[in-house]
Here is the input.
Amino acid sequence: MKTPSFLKPKDKIAIVATARKATLKDLQEALQHIKNWDLEPIIGTSIGLEDHQFAGTDAERAKDLQQQLDDPEIKAIWCAKGGYGTVRILDLLDFTKFKENPKWIIGYSDVTALHSHIHNLNIVTLHAQMCIGVETKTEVSRETLRKALFGETIQYKFPFSNYNKTGAAKGEIVGGNLSVLFSLCGSNSAINTDGKILFIEDLDEYLYHIDRMMQNLKRNGMLENLAGLVIGGMSDMNDNTIPFGKTAEEIIYETVEAYNYPVAFNFPAGHIENNQAIILGKKVNLEVTESTSTLAYLK
Here is the structure.
């Protein structure tokens, strides 16, 4: 996997909206953090555009992202907001120049579509908080984003869960939002998870749909040959009048119970306040014991 160059002071970081609409006013906190990190923010042309829910039409959003992908002076691209819409522009993009001169792609949730597509180009990306809402996350969350961009060491230690499966594994960490990964199955943006450590998280889903998505990943062969599985926030789940009968954690545990690899719940990433940055595509060491779990990047 090819890793983009780490940032240095005065580098330019572009803000684009690949999905839902965002205004310049929405970005003030993020702009302040960029300046505090001694970086130069570049506002993409999609900011301020509006097409119903989206930040302009598919063509307008794709044009903005394409410009930032191709510009050699832009060293990172920070997605303004998630929601839905990134997948609609994937096939409108040309990654030729980006492959020659890769840069950091930053975001999570709906941006999983972009992460997965770029993973198949053998380029590392950054699963981290969006511009909008950056002030609602923890200082630790913001600091892991900064450290990742500047090439500083990040390690994770997170609490034990009764649904964990102990063990140790090494492999590239991949994944993101479960709903988006599910939606990419069968496309050229779907990731090959064999021998890798899969990270998943989700928000505001019905429990039966969590089960549907996990069964889909299982039947697509995406769970059988993992090196390990890491689960972040499974936040604000919904249920029907007649309960499904299992929590999201129980559904996931049950789906992978028969497989012989470590499973670690409670990872600090996802639609949670402490949404720590993950360098997707990098090799990591995962250790799950009966008291705690740790994940560290390998040299």
Notes: The chain has a mean pLDDT of 98.
